[in-house]
User: Fold these one by one.
Assistant:
Number 1:
Amino acid sequence: MDKQACDVGVVGLGVMGHALVLNLAEHGISVAGYDADQQRARALAADAPADRVCVASSEAELADLLKAPRCVLMLVPAGPPVDSVLESLTPHLSAGDLVLDCGNSFYRDTDRRAATLGPKGIGYMGVGVSGGQHGARHGASLMAGGAREAYNRVLPVLRAVAATVDGEACLGYMGAGSAGHYVKMVHNGIEYGLMQLIAESYDIMHRGLAMSDQASAAVFARWNEVELGGYLMEITADILSRVDAQTGQPLVDVILGEAGQNYTGMWTSQDAMALFVPTPTIDAAVVARNLSDLEAERLEASRTIVRREMPSIPGRDTLLNDLRGALYAAELITYAQGMALIQKASVAHGYGTSMLEVTRAWRGGCIIRSGVVRLLDEAYSTRPDLANPLLHKPFADEVAQRQERLREVVSQAARMGLPAPAMSASLAYLDGYRSDRLPANLIQAQRDYFGAHTYERVDARGVFHTAWETD
């Protein structure tokens, strides 16, 4: 290709970057790619059409290959690697150029980087990308944040590589500044919650009901055809059906029970706490992953803290029926927590996020795509400023109709001695959120007793203090 012939540049040609370049090229967009790892660069050169893709040997050559004003997409791991790439790339950019960080960067880092590049006239956007390698190659969910004019400029590129549902692209403008990365962070927090809920359901089947992995796979496959249908349910059925070629055992049974994390779930919990938004299901999912990493300690504890009797449990069909309803209710509650956080953060961080833009992006392509997103879309179409989907009656009714099944499953899991932290947290959140009275009055009294923190009264305005030890 001729010099300055490429429409966009892509820095980072790993799994996601490689796939995205091929997706862009397939949609008629010429790409210049670069990666410091020459093996990755050679792999792309071997796979990509030569009339649409150039592979640069340096950041300087990459910049030289791009049409002005330049547009560069970064797909590199969050944290220091992003800063390293920007340090090397920025000297070769000019005022009017635009950089899109398409990784899982922490939103405050995105704000910092945008503020650094702004005085140089270089635009910076945080674009959340969900859908994994398959999404990057065949259609992803895209959550863009930054200046509206910058979004409008790159919209044809984003629309080309986005997944589509009913002929509409699964992408949206999440708002100003770091809104795109913030929404992607919460998306991943919801993902943590949903994965933990599904894992707890599997555990109840596997250890509680002594079901084989094939039998569990069949249940998840059936559930994927009803209200629980979604990407995570679909892949769970596939995973449980897979046989390990080396041992002949179910593959899931030879996978170590330790779950890593990429910090986005933890960031979601941390920011929710900073904004005073309760997200206990997501919090429980993060804690469950941390607990899974304590393998040596858990092994020792399993020998020292022994439960000697297993109580009788209801029949398999009865418990599975309850589990189906409980899982759906808990999933709805998880989405509700995440959406409430996005709504609160939009105001706190000045994003101006449209919740309908969020649901539009999540309809397809992303990991958390499911029928629940349609319910969310309907809720925010009716009430755009809805503080929490549980305040929308049709959404709340779906939960209310299944709340007794959630109670039963949490109770049965406790009787069986099986951990169900996300299920339990979802139920506690539901009961707390629907309570017109909570015992926080006692907590206020305790704080006033030991620290003179004062309290408010239900029958008078103002703040009050009691001299507890003398009155």
Number 2:
Amino acid sequence: MEALLIGLIDTSPFQRLRRIRQLGTANLTFHGAESSRFTHSLGVMVIARRAFDRLAVMYSELKSHRAAVLCAALLHDVGHGPFSHTAEEVFGGHHEHWTVRILEQAAEIRERLDHFSPTLRSEIEQIYRHQHPVPCVWQLVSSQLDCDRIDYLMRDSYSTGASYGQLDLDRIILALDYDPASQQLIVARKGLGAIEHYLVVRYFMYAQIYNHPKNLVATWVLEQLISRARILMAAGKLEADDTMTAWLSCEIDMLPLDQYLAQDDYGLYYHLQRWQTHKDLILADLCQRFVNRRLPKATDISQYTYAQQQDILSAARCQAYEQVPDTDVYVSLRHIRNRGYTLYQRGIKLKTPEGLVAISQLSPLVQTLIQPCHRTWLLHPADMPTAEILQKFELVDTNTTKGN
């Protein structure tokens, strides 16, 4: 088992994760956010090993699934593109799709898995598709309370300096249990406090880190410049290497495997550097803004009605008309919806004397976290006086988020 894990780590597709940032563009806001998908994947596997081995001691029927759980935990993010989830927003495509394709088509990985066991690869794919006959097996890797989330919350809070992201890993692992009747991953009743803390941490990490307004504007600039690059590429007015040409010209999920794996943060940044001097003024300007962190600003307009938000957008574009070459590119809205807890993949069940009970039925705190929080941001040039625009409406908010 250990030789298999080491062999998988040493493969080219897994080593590529060293060149994929864990937090996408967040390093432009939180300057310690430089960790990679490589280190995260190792962390998920380590936590999965601790959690699974503890359960397997108490429930011996789980032992035969150890290889599938550890390999699935290790490889769960091997399909990510440059800047992780940001690539999915910018280029399209789905890293889950590519993870399965890599298992099937990357000879380095497929041959190692098949050599260990002829059924291991199909069992891992069942985990990723949430179709494994023992739900606990896939829930350890992908659920409301899984080893993936536990690792990224701890890792991301550390790298960004968010002290409220600290979790008590030992207490969480001790709280995990297995229900032989339903074969689900559950939580012991005494572990309710640890899981509540975990869910609160996740809520704050999304609200304050992952959906930070500076992250939103950085992703927005990247979206706009890639959209511009696609237009120029289609017109024959943009130079790029074969990999970037394929990423700009084709549907991402339909690319050949070698062209997908050839793209990473380094390749993308190389082209952004080159395009800073492109003859197209919009592409050049957007690349300069991203590379040199001269980003737009975001103003929170959540308190306005939807109709008012659209009017604010129109007014902002009118005001920016003579300042920017294309108002649709430089002025926009971002709608963010954050929920601290959902019933995704059966939710979290607690073990009580009366049987399994949904955590939301026992915890008023979790009931609160279920309520969605909506925020809307006006993204605009940094020197735009948004106060003048907002004063025209019934509610006035002159607070422009300046970021870091």
Number 3:
Amino acid sequence: MKKIEIAPSILSADFRTLEREVKAAQDAGADRIHCDVMDGHFVPNISFGPLVVEAVKKCVSIPLDVHIMISDPIKYANDFCSAGADVLCFHAEALNNTDEIKKLLDDIRSKGVRPGVAVNPDKPVDLFISELASIDQVVIMSVYAGFGGQKFIADTMEKVRAVRSAAIEQGLDIDIEVDGGVNGETAQLCAKAGANVLVAGSFVFGSGDYKGRISAVRESAAKD
């Protein structure tokens, strides 16, 4: 089993003191910083763009896990690669076909960034599963993209199992990330299904104990 990594999402951080927030998360044991980019079109809300990603990159030494929930990932992917994304994941359902998905994955990789694909709870993994060999990370949304603090959708773990099974069958060592509603209880479900990267937003940044909350997620994921 791959090492479990915890990626606090800055969507739930206090942007008045963002540098302090991400440094505190890093010091508390976070393995990555997760950046949720929303355009107000693919999802109803607007969050931030490449300038914030670039600023966060200067504040921490752990990887930036950038998740772009935008309608035109082809147009903007390079901007986020240049801003400092270590991993860049776009939504499969934002593109028209597997050819576009494969091309964007290859373009991201050519920039020295690890490419990934995400899907919302109501979208099938069939959108991208044929291109799994070109993917470094799959993001299974366990809530609908665009809002923080939603309730975890347990049925989405079937997708995690399906992707992990396909990866094992093909001999691929990919990361599977679960994003949405991850906490000290649901982390165990994610890990058992085969996920190894867990995004925890409000559970971490909404507390006064980042270290304790990150440890709670890690400990839950480690349970049999």
